[in-house]
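Team,

Forwarding the record for the chain on the shared tracking sheet. I've put the sequence and predicted structure together so nobody has to dig through attachments.
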Amino acid sequence: MTDTPKHPPKSDLPADHSLSDSLNELAAAQLAIEEISADRAVLSAKLETATKRLSLLEDILQPRLKSILTLRPLRFALQQRNKRKRELKAVSENSPQPDAKTLGTATPASPPTIPPGQQDWQGLGIALFAHTRVKCIRNTLESLARQDALHITHVFIDGDQGKPSLRKKIDEVYNAVSKYPVKKIHRQRGAFGFRKMMLIAGDFMRQNYGRMLFLEDDCFPVNGAIAQFNDELDRIDNDNKVFSVYGHPFLVQGEEDLFTRFQSWGWATTREKLAPIWDELKSCYFMSESEYLDFVGKMLSPEIASKINVTPGRQPTETLHKFFAWDETVCLLAAMRGLSHKRSTHRLIYNCGAGLNSTHFENLQLFRKPPFNMIDEDEVWEYFDEQPHK
């Protein structure tokens, strides 16, 4: 038997089509793809700039009815509109222009430049948390806008985990936030929960900022609060015995300039002060509940308990003995290190999370009193220009 002759596979290319022709066509196709990618990047940058410009223009044109109804001076309203116009100009002048040669190439992050008309906050960054409360986040962002602090604000929005009804509410919050030129919106799809969101935000902030201010959406900052927080951080920067500055006082007996009870409703610290506490906090978060309660039982000595149980009606040990709560755990970890917390010279934060819409503080009249001192979300602008205590 003779073997059947083997023939090379037939090519789909024409007989006169050489290898060099194929390579030339491939190179031309690759060049076309790169040109399209460059055009796409430029258009995306222009779209982002246009979106910011549109948001600022809408704010400029929006009537300041609330200012009129509260008899706020017309001069103040005009100052705010002029500030928006400066921001609009800054967006136009500082819009990014992608370079086709560097597309797809990773480059180290450079320090952000401060556009004209925006304040340099000396390395301060703001972490603002939001989820489903549209009115609260609008009020807080508007306050930050009036203090020229949006360009240092990162908004962290927890997700819906595939629940359509929850996604609709979160979409409303996201759309409200998108109308403000914040530094960045960090939105999740999964439902992380506030504790994990706080841990993630803390890591992000300490990696990117030397100073950080943490605000929940119902922590309304009064006029001048951001500048005052920065001044307060100046005072504790080199004091190794102080962990944080807080702007919402407990107003209880014994609360002096320094206090041994941590307050989570509007607080600030530095990278160096946050790092050791945050690493321990994450370790506690990943413990099982039985492990955590065992840890608390071992660390919560009578001496430490006496230091942190100084806000009757809102004692941290009442929670520490039940389950993990990030704020009460920070309180414990700081006390274990012998650290204190500085009350701001003036009241800088009003917590407006009380009332019928609250899941924790429904009885507004009860929670208006120390150690809570909360208000309703409809009242926040009545306090914007006030400094109730010294």
